[in-house]
Amino acid sequence: MPRIATPSSIAAAPAAAQPMLQAVEKQLGVVPNLFRMVANSPAALDGYLGMMGALAKGRLPAPTRERIALAIAEINGCNYCLCAHTYLGKTLASLDDAEMTANRHGGSMDPKAAAAVRFAARIAQSRGHVAQDDIAAVRLAGYDDGEIVEIVQHIALNVWTNYINEVAQTEIDFPVVSARDAA
């Protein structure tokens, strides 16, 4: 059972959040529970949507962003995010099941993406305390400093959604997938 209320509709959300939720609905065709729950704080919803929008304009391609999201959700044991990003990985990024399994284990079948996902997993597991060798490996795979910054920012965004969903116990509204190590 959710521990933070999820407004039942856009109209039931705080007035300041309603235009943002309408924009989500226009873009996705639905308003997932995460967005409606976060709408309890219009400021938090604005920050979340702002960061998502900014990163969507970055240089990391959608499949790599979804791969990172899956790795981070697995590390943090967030079933909501695993379900959401498995769905998005299939529908938005055209990732197959084998690739998403590799992503959840901190890798990828694509060599360049594998370096980004390994780096992201290493950052998350070490809470940012990576070695020079970790930086060298992601650079060797073809990522520049700007893309490295974007990888870190994607980790931050995904850790936040993992944590808010775990705190809230957000009801899953995607096809269900479970984390290996979910608590």
What can you see in these coordinates?
With 183 residues, this protein is mainly alpha-helical. Helix content is 64%, strand content 0%. It is built from nine helices and no strands. The protein has helices spanning 18-28, 33-38, 42-56, 62-76, 79-91, 97-104, 111-126, 132-140, 145-168. The protein is globular and about 50 Å long. It starts with 17 loop residues before the first helix and ends in a 15-residue tail after the last helix.
Quick overview:
This is Carboxymuconolactone decarboxylase family protein. The mean pLDDT is 95.
Q: Any chance you could write out the topology, listing elements then pairs?
A:
Elements: H1 18-28, H2 33-38, H3 42-56, H4 62-76, H5 79-91, H6 97-104, H7 111-126, H8 132-140, H9 145-168
Helix pairs in contact: 3-9, 4-5, 4-6, 4-7, 4-9, 7-8, 7-9
Any descriptors?
183 residues, single chain, globular, mainly alpha
Uncertain segments: none
Global outline: globular
Mean pLDDT: 95
Question: Can you count the helices?
Answer: 9
The total beta strand count reads: 0
Percent strand equals under 5%
Distance between the termini: 15 Å
Radius of gyration: 16 Å
Task: Give the ordered list of helices and strands.
Answer: HHHHHHHHH
* Structural class designation: mainly alpha
Biggest sheet statistics: none
Helical content class: 55-70%
Protein name: Carboxymuconolactone decarboxylase family protein
Organism: Mesorhizobium australicum
